[in-house]
Amino acid sequence: MELKIPPGDNLERYVCDSCGMIHYQNPNNVAGAILVWQDRVLMCRRAIEPRYGLWTFPAGFMENNETVHQAAIRESIEEANARVGPLQLFGVFSMPYISQVHLIFSGRLLSDDVSPGEESLEVGLFTRDQIPWDKLAFPVIKHSLELYFAHGPDSGKVHQAWFSRSPDREVKIHFEA
Questions:
Q1: What is the pTM assigned to this prediction?
Q2: Above 70 in pLDDT, residue 91?
């Protein structure tokens, strides 16, 4: 393997010296869901790294051979044993500094019967005022929840932004036009 710019490309890629096969490295997709029962949002306290012990809504990396909807539903089941109703795309958030794209959905729970899955220490249904805002796992979770409470799930708008991180690790949000 050699890192070089293949013919017809403009970026360095890993290329097999023997057969010429190009090994692309592309961003990872994360699918998540803001799920609501009445006026309360489903939240999960992480039982895994990174950010062990902090709070998030169900979200995780997509698997091969699944749609983003399927990934959001799978993560909701894995993390909170949640029964999920129809989902609609709520936001698309690019994070080039960690090579990720987050696709966040919103929807309703079909039941308030939720419990921790293997990746959660605990789960709960929180009103806006009950959410542990100072103990959220990732900036994109905080940003998504703030947008959700500001605009609601049925605005019909798909929110878009991209996140950058400064050398001192401060995360900044840039809104798309």
A1: 0.91
A2: yes
